[in-house]
Amino acid sequence: MGAQLRLLRRRINSVKSTAKITRAQELIASSRIVRAQQRMQAALPYEREITRAVTGVVSNTVSVDHPLTVAKENPARAGVLIVTSDSGFCGGFNANVLREAEALRGLLEGRGLDVTPFVTGRKGVTWHTFRGRDMGGQWTGFSRKPAYADAKEIADTLIGSFKDENGIDEIHIVSTEFVSMLTQNVVVKRILPLEIEETEATDTSTIPPYFEFEPNADEVLESLLPRYVESRIFTALLQSAASEEAARRRAMKSATDNANELIRVLTQDMNQARQAEITQEISEIVGGANALADAAAGKE
Amino acid sequence: MVIAKTVEGEIGILPRHAPVLGVLVEGGVLRVKREGEDDLVAAVHGGFISVADNEVSVLAEVAELGSEVDVAAARDALARAQASIEANQEDADAAIQAKRARARLRAAGEEV
Question: Alpha-carbon distance A157 to A154, whole Å?
């Protein structure tokens, strides 16, 4: 067998085994998306109710001057929570988030703020350590299956730093929003201080009713706001987990498709090489036989 | 009727109650009295109760239905928490654990 033929055969085998792996990854990711979506759905009612409650308190109390709702006059530092994944093999998922985070950093620095990144997910943490960037906090190990306790831990760190005089004055979050299996968008949101919109009441069904408070509005707000931030972070983590799997499924699908295409091309090359080899052998045999026949004819 | 325990004390909510937003205590028991059915009882640890538009929603950090409480595990947790309170009076964690365990047992209809 010719050397070229053997080389091609070996490459086809290696591409085939790669395709097997990526195909398996694709299937695993598909089944995980469903579960991640279910977890997302399960967290929705809580988030909706807590948002409603916060809206209710904020729009019913005349003087809202809780530290978590009031923007500082001269903000000096901003915290950015960057939600990435722990493992790779998910296409541009992390690159997209990090690119958006860099854009936000530029924007905030343009406003004269110092930016402190808070990073979740091993990929984001490695990205920052590689560049020697200091992080305000880093969490890894739960990007695929975030628990509420993880969100709580992150929220505690952020709120702690926010309440601290020398800490951060704004909190932004950069994460991936799960729209559908095919669409995931990187979104940037400011979670603290809350943005209070002065709106005219137009639609009666959406106006939060007038609340009585037990024990009083300030204390309700005091314990409600941290929960609200936790819930927002938890939602971001869950959405990011679902998006990660969707991105992984897509990346693995195109990897499998590419591998199959490569196998097709290589098989064609291999067949061509084999055919060329056979043709050459035949022409050698024919040439040899002709030479013998000519030699025999010359003797006579 | 919904009965919950807020930091101000017990609150009972009947249909058409005025909108209320209350902070719930750590280790409280929530009871929903239903017509023609058994009461729905749950152990609720912290969180809020909000009443609006004739709808009651309870947002808890941790909650467990009385029917789902593992009584043996809760008794065990209570015993452990009490032991560590005896060892160290200022053990805030253990105090919360004890409260939670008691609420779970009460929700399950056990005597504590």
Answer: 5
Which residues of A are marked as active site?
Answer: 90
Q: How far is CA A15 from CA A3, A88, A96, A155, A271, in A?
A: 19, 20, 28, 45, 17
> Strand pairing partners for A175?
A187
Q: Is the ipTM of this complex over 0.90?
A: no
Q: Report pLDDT digits (tens) over A137-188.
A: 899 998 888 888 898 899 988 888 888 777 788 889 999 999 888 888 999 9
Reported as a single tens digit per residue, the pLDDT across A33-78 is 999 999 999 888 888 888 877 877 777 665 556 766 777 777 788 8
Q: What is the 3-state secondary structure (H, E, C) of B50-81?
A: EEECCEEEEECCEEEEHHHCCHHHHHHHHHHH
Question: Going by C-beta distance under 8 Å and a sequence separation of 6 or more, which residues neighbour residue A58?
Answer: A64, A69, A194, A196, A221
Distance CA A32, CA A186 (A): 20
Among all residues of chain B, which has the CA nearest to that of A216?
Answer: B22
Residue A50 contacts B where some CB pair is shorter than 8 Å: yes
Distance separating alpha carbons of residues A81 and A136, to the nearest angstrom: 9
Query: Going along chain A, which residue ranges are E strands?
Result: 77-83, 114-120, 137-139, 170-178, 184-192, 212-214
Q: Each residue of A18-29: pLDDT tens digit?
A: 999 999 999 999
Instruction: Compute CA distances A148 → A39, A156, B94, whole Å.
Output: 11, 12, 21
pLDDT of residue A55: 78
The rounded distance, in Å, linking the Cα atoms of B83 and A158 is 35
| Among B56, B51, B49, B31, residue whose Cα is nearest residue B41 | B31
A52 reaches B (C-beta below 8 A):
yes
Burial of A38 (0-12, 13-18, 19+ CB in 10 A): exposed
Structure confidence by residue, pLDDT tens digits, B30-54: 888 888 777 888 888 878 888 877 8
Other CB atoms within 10 Å distance of the CB of residue A84? 29
**Is any Cβ of chain B less than 8 angstroms from the Cβ of A49?**
yes
Rounded CA-CA distance A158/A155 in Å is 5
Using a CB-CB cut-off of 8 Å, the residues of chain A touching B47 are 227
Taking Cα atoms as reference points, which of A49, A96, A140, A114 lies closest to residue A243? A96
C-alpha distance from residue A253 to each of A186, A217, A269, B101 (Å): 21, 52, 24, 49
Which chain B positions have a beta carbon within 8 Å of A53's beta carbon?
21, 48, 50, 59
